[in-house]
């Protein structure tokens, strides 16, 4: 079964991370397929918006696949992995069509980073969220803190990052991390208000939306984030925390 699925329904491309047995954790295959699906969604003229979601009802995405990435020890090797997914999320952040993270379930760690790279975050009820990287002795490393500081109030953003806590949809709504709490039908109705316009209209407004950002500046901030994360990656605190999860 493919680890990432892409389906176009009602002029909306649904990119689904398809590893429910691992709470939709991200490994190298997912990174490659995610990028390939972005290309398809970008190039298809019958696609007016992109929804990123997770398969199943348990999780949107549980972040990096610890059973794979726990073998990464050095800063140099960590940078290689982090850059791979950071480049995918930078592309998602500047995607030319409206992007929506549909939080169908738990989103933690890099899962929250993927959601933050999307223009909108819409959650199902009772979803748990958390930038929990700090509990593993690292920071975000795929661009998540760079994007979070652009998406919500900076003081709310830095608290979510430093606390590394799991929080609920009510708090996410309150701090502006989640835009709406919708079920599938409500999401479809909300999306249809936009997809009834011509693609050219949506492309033009998304250019205005993205024009706010200096792409080189954002990229440099992501590179600084990767430098922070990869330096912390080498610490015993990080390796011990990951080992505790692997050996749980
Ligand atoms: C730059 C990004 C950064 C990085 O890549 O390093 C990160 O993303 S750091 C954060 C990495 N993610 C985590 O630390 C989350 C770990 N997972 C959990 O905390 C829980 O699994 C949770 C809350 C997501 C779901 O809990 P639940 O009780 O519903 O499920 P289980 O814990 O029993 O997990 C089921 C099954 O999935 C495997 N699993 C879950 N998450 C991961 C993961 N991130 N990597 C690898 N495998 C994962 C878990 O081991 C279980 O497998 P099983 O074989 O059934 O034991």
3D architecture notes:
The chain is of the alpha/beta class and 248 residues long. The protein has a single domain, classed as 2-enoyl-CoA Hydratase, Chain A, domain 1 (Alpha-Beta Complex), CATH 3.90.226.10. Helices cover 51% and strands 16% of the residues. It is built from eleven helices and ten strands. The protein has a six-stranded mixed sheet with strand order 1-2-3-5-7-10. Strand 2 (12-17), helix 1 and strand 3 (49-54) form a beta-alpha-beta unit. Helix 3 packs parallel to helix 4, helix 3 (75-93) packs antiparallel against helix 10 and helix 5 (144-151) packs antiparallel against helix 6. The relative contact order is 0.14. The model has no long low-confidence stretch (mean pLDDT 97). Residues 22-23, 25, 58-59, 62-67, 69, 106, 108-110, 132-133, 136, 140-142, 245 line the site of ligand LZKTLF4L. Ligand LZKTLF4L binds next to helix 2 and strand 6.
| CATH architecture descriptor text | Alpha-Beta Complex
Going by CATH, the homologous superfamily would be 2-enoyl-CoA Hydratase, Chain A, domain 1
The quaternary state of the protein chains shown equals single chain
User: How would you spell out the order of helices and strands?
Assistant: EEHEEHHEEHEEHHEHEHHHH
| Tally of domains | 1
N/C terminus separation: 27 Å
Reported for the largest beta sheet, the result is: 6 strands, mixed
Enzyme class: lyase
Pfam family, one: ECH_1
Catalytic activity: (2R)-ethylmalonyl-CoA + H(+) = butanoyl-CoA + CO2; (2S)-ethylmalonyl-CoA + H(+) = butanoyl-CoA + CO2; (S)-methylmalonyl-CoA + H(+) = propanoyl-CoA + CO2
EC number: 4.1.1.94
């Amino acid at each position: 079964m493919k680890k990432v699925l892409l389906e176009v329904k009602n002029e909306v491309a649904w990119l689904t991370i398809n590893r429910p047995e691992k709470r939709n954790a991200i490994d190298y295959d997912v990174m490659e397929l995610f990028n390939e699906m972005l290309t398809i969604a970008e190039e298809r003229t019958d696609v007016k918006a992109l929804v990123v979601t997770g398969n199943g009802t348990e999780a949107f995405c549980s972040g990096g696949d610890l059973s794979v990435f726990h073998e990464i020890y050095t800063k140099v090797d960590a940078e290689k992995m982090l850059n791979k997914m950071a480049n995918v999320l930078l592309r998602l952040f500047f995607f030319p069509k409206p992007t929506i993270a549909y939080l169908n379930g738990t989103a933690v760690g890099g899962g929250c980073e993927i959601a933050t790279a999307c223009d909108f975050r819409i959650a199902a009820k009772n979803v748990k969220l958390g930038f929990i990287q700090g509990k593993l002795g690292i920071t975000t490393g795929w661009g998540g803190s760079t994007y979070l500081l652009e998406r919500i109030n900076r003081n709310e953003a830095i608290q979510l990052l430093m606390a590394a806590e799991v929080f609920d949809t009510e708090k996410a709504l309150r701090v502006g991390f989640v835009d709406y709490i919708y079920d599938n039908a409500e999401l479809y109705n909300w999306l249809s208000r936009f997809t009834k316009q011509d693609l050219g209209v949506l492309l033009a407004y998304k250019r205005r939306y993205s024009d706010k950002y200096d792409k080189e500046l954002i990229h440099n901030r992501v590179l600084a984030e990767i430098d922070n994360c990869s330096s912390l990656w080498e610490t015993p605190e990080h390796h011990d925390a990951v080992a505790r999860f692997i050996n749980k």
